[in-house]
Amino acid sequence: MPAESSRGDAAKLPRKNPVAGFGVTFKDVFKKRLTEQYPEYKKPTAPRFHGRHQLNRHPDGLEKCIGCELCAWACPADAIYVEGADNTEEERYSPGERYGRVYQINYLRCILCGLCVEACPTRALTMTNEYELADRSRESLIYTKEELLAGLEDGMVDTPHAIHPGMTEQDYYRGLVTEAAPGTERQPALSKGERPAGEGVEA
Ligand code: SF4
Ligand code: SF4
Question: How many structural domains comprise the chain?
Answer without folding.
Answer: 1
